[in-house]
Amino acid sequence: MSENGLRFTKTHEWVKVEGDVATLGLTDYAQHELGDIVFVELPEIGREIAAGDVLTSVESVKSVSEVYTPVSGEVVESNAALEEDPSVVNSDPLGAGWIARIRMKDPGELSELMDAQAYEEHKKG
């Protein structure tokens, strides 16, 4: 999955929207900074969450980090493959390493997120 069509947060999460469902995960930059990811706590299906809330946490060899949701809604799916192999977040962060899918309540929240060019500038800052 290329960075085309993705939106990014200041806390290094990405979102790809299909219909009213947002798939989200950690950016390549985030996984690189964290190092080898050894555990991903999967969010609970059916959980209602607001933009900016902690969605879940990931554990790397360096630390435990929180993952925030950039959109409000209901968690409709979590990536069960990460239970068996959390390192997929490192090897394919923008594809198979996705963490959760959220049915959005307010697609307007997406306007608060950065496109790829703005995110590249943010990382330099």
Level-1 CATH class name: Mainly Beta
**Which range best describes the helical content: under 10%, 10-25%, 25-40%, 40-55%, 55-70% or over 70%?**
10-25%
| N/C terminus separation | 25 Å
CATH architecture: Beta Barrel
Binned strand content: 25-35%
Low-confidence stretches: none
The CATH homologous superfamily is called: RNA polymerase II/Efflux pump adaptor protein, barrel-sandwich hybrid domain
Summed up, the domain count is 1
N-to-C SSE series? EEEHEEEEEHHEH
Strands side by side in the biggest sheet: 1-2-3-9-8-5
Number of helices: 4
* Inertia-based shape: globular
SSE-based structural type: alpha+beta
| Biggest β-sheet description | 6 strands, antiparallel
Radius of gyration, taken over Cα atoms and rounded to an integer in Å:
13 Å
Mean pLDDT: 95
CATH topology: the name is OB fold (Dihydrolipoamide Acetyltransferase, E2P)
